[in-house]
Design a protein that fits this description.
Structural class: mainly alpha
Number of helices: 19
Helix content: over 70%
Oligomer: single chain
Distance between the termini: 37 Å
Order of helices and strands: HHHHHHHHHHHHHHHHHHH
Number of strands: 0
Radius of gyration: 21 Å
Length: 412
């Protein structure tokens, strides 16, 4: 491989990771921290405010297959540019809004832009430019994206504290996404056939995996992958994990305040959750060639269940630590393991469609903040909502544990 190509492929990786870091920090990880300030100013109910968070998640899911279509039709560059411009419009709408429906529309645009800039185009770039380091690169990519969850809460706190305005936060996010749009337009592109031919003799083969890790020998067709029960078990695992995480991101800050936890300690706990999230993705990327991602997923779901139980009673530092470690590890490892399982089970060729359809199917997870907001209004708190999430998680843990890899005869 030439030096220029080696530099360019890691530059593509860096741009994809920068997008994932930013959209994580500026959407799900920020909105739950900004919402109390917006609720105080506009006197919204928890259910009304939570609907905006749910619309954000809804559009991420509904647009799950959109990036696969834009990549095939317009290319990877256009996908990132369209997504980042859409997010910029969402940030402007929220920052200038004074009425509920404008906030809902802005949150919806953030969800649409998120889908176009997140894992589908990111993993497509990695498969295209780094096929020989796929598990490591995907793990690192998701780690860097996960660090956005660490950065999001303190960024909001710092900006609001120093400017005394939640609107400045959203204007800052609009400026940042504009800069990323320029970088995407200038540099992002697919690996050319000329590069493939020039580097064929020097490019390493696919990464070596342990005999304990199942990996399909042929690429499955999209329609055949969707006919396997394994696909829907993987989708269910990610869906329920997102249900838990979206509920946590939207209401944990408020919930901890109701339990008597200070703003500073609550922010620290959420940032620690994001840090563990990021570290678990890095760990998963390193060991996924030696331990089957199925078992990484089982441990992730157990961690998520423990984290939800701890959060429901997190009125002391010990429970906060268990919550941050359990939920952070659970979401981070689940996010990575489900993506790797789809690649290992069904191959690379139709992965944008296979992954995008999974993202679409997880749309139902957007009900998490709405259901929790309803429970919070009725019960006067969110503990019951988090405990319900933990109970549902046990069912999915059992389904994943007994799952077997799909066999080629199923495709035939």
């Amino acid at each position: 491989m030439t030096g220029a190509t080696a530099y360019k492929r890691w530059w593509m990786f860096a741009l994809a990771s920068a997008f994932f870091f930013f959209i994580t920090a500026s959407t799900f990880s920020s909105l739950g921290v900004v919402l109390p300030y917006m609720i105080e100013e506009f006197s919204w109910t928890w259910s009304q405010a939570g609907t905006g968070f749910s619309l954000l998640a809804l559009l991420v899911g509904l647009a799950g297959t959109l990036p696969a279509w834009t990549i095939r039709r317009f290319g990877i560059k256009a996908t990132y540019v369209i997504g980042s411009v859409t997010m910029g419009c969402g940030f402007v709408l929220i920052s200038t809004g004074s009425w509920l429906y404008q906030y809902w529309l802005g949150a919806s645009l953030l969800g649409l832009g998120y889908a176009l800039c997140a894992t589908v185009p990111g993993i497509h770039l990695i498969n295209d430019w780094l096929p020989d380091r796929r598990s490591f690169a995907i793990g690192l990519y998701m780690t860097l994206g996960g660090l956005g969850a660490v950065a999001g809460p303190p960024i909001v706190t710092i900006i609001v504290t120093h400017t005394d305005s939640w609107r400045v936060h959203w204007w800052s996010m609009a400026a940042a996404v504009l800069a990323l749009t320029v970088l995407a337009f200038a540099f992002i592109n697919n690996r050319s056939s000329e590069n493939d031919e020039a580097d064929a003799a020097n490019t390493p083969g696919e990464e070596k995996t342990s005999d304990k890790v199942f990996k399909t020998k042929t690429d499955w067709r999209y329609r055949d992958a969707l006919r396997t029960p394994q696909y829907y078990v993987i989708v269910a695992a990610l869906t329920l994990t997102l249900f838990c995480t979206l509920t946590m991101n939207s209401w944990a800050f408020t919930h901890l305040g109701m339990l008597g936890i200070s703003t500073a300690l609550a922010t620290l706990a959420l940032s620690a959750d994001g840090a563990v999230n990021a570290m678990s993705r890095a760990l998963g990327g390193i060991i996924a060639t030696r331990i089957d991602p199925k078992w990484l997923l089982v441990t992730a779901l157990i961690g998520e269940m423990i984290g939800m139980v701890a959060l429901s009673v997190a009125d002391n530092p010990a429970a906060l630590v268990i919550f941050a470690v359990g939920e952070g590890f659970g979401f981070g490892m689940c996010f990575l393991a489900t993506a790797l399982l789809l690649l290992n089970y069904f191959g690379e060729k139709d992965n944008p469609e296979i992954l995008g359809t999974m993202n679409f199917m997880t749309t139902i997870a957007m009900l998490g903040p709405i259901v929790a907001g309803y429970i919070g209004d009725k019960a006067g708190g969110f503990s019951m909502a988090f405990q319900l999430n933990a109970a549902l998680m046990l069912i999915v843990i059992i389904a994943v544990a007994v799952m077997k890899p799909p066999r080629q005869q199923q495709q035939d």
